């Protein structure tokens, strides 16, 4: 990116799911008259609407958003792809604006934009094929157990219900003898713009109430119908995620509807906990309650 971007600022808004990141991002984007880049690895997919809690029509109309409905579940879209495409869009926003907003709860994607990804090692394709076969025959538990023993740091960091992420961590270790976690943080690329990091959180009981309420809202909006309409895509990794896999279990008659909804709430709460563990390690994040919009804008104004 050109030198001229030294005076530009990327504001990053992070936090657990259901905390209110979208609402805050829109307020901040309107204040600075700029655009929003979504760093939510599920909102990329146009087929998944209700279960990913995308910004609604009014929110999308209020501020220009990037990476919402930008890809299909049938496409492979990696963290590395996101790094390249997001930096390109940030550069385009900076042509006409001094500030850009990035918002989301996907730590790996945000980290790729802030610090860059290391060159990933060559993977032994036989090992990958073996692990995929093992996953099909023995299920995700077998993969999780191995990864947890070889690379507990990576295991704790990422979505443990995501087979692709679990297999990725394991294949890197088995191919190279090195932990993927040690590669992810080894080098930091310098970006030619300032970065301000804002985190949203609240006390656990309040957060869990918000999560439970959001799941109830999704169910009322027709989440089950959405999942039924996506049965043909269920083999794709994007669908192997909270809110979808539990309802596939219901459709497979492995769980009652009430139990499936209860599992979505429980798995979302666990996911929120892992998101917070990831983000709390970053000492550059300034934390706020979800309703402290004025304070957030004040802090940004002071630092720009």
TrEMBL record:
Entry binding sites for substrate: 17-22
UniProt binding sites for ATP: 15-22
Cofactor names: Mg(2+)
Site entry: Interaction with substrate tRNA: 106, 128
Entry's family note: Belongs to the IPP transferase family.
Enzyme class: transferase
Phylogenetic placement of the source organism: Bacteria, Pseudomonadati, Bacteroidota, Sphingobacteriia, Sphingobacteriales
Enzyme Commission number(s) of this protein: 2.5.1.75
Function (record text): Catalyzes the transfer of a dimethylallyl group onto the adenine at position 37 in tRNAs that read codons beginning with uridine, leading to the formation of N6-(dimethylallyl)adenosine (i(6)A).
Keyword Nucleotide-binding attached: yes
Protein name: tRNA dimethylallyltransferase
HAMAP family linked: IPP_trans
Spans annotated as Interaction with substrate tRNA: 40-43, 164-168
InterPro entries per the UniProt record, alphabetical: Dimethylallyltransferase (IPR039657), IPT (IPR018022), P-loop_NTPase (IPR027417)
Catalytic activity, reaction form: adenosine(37) in tRNA + dimethylallyl diphosphate = N(6)-dimethylallyladenosine(37) in tRNA + diphosphate
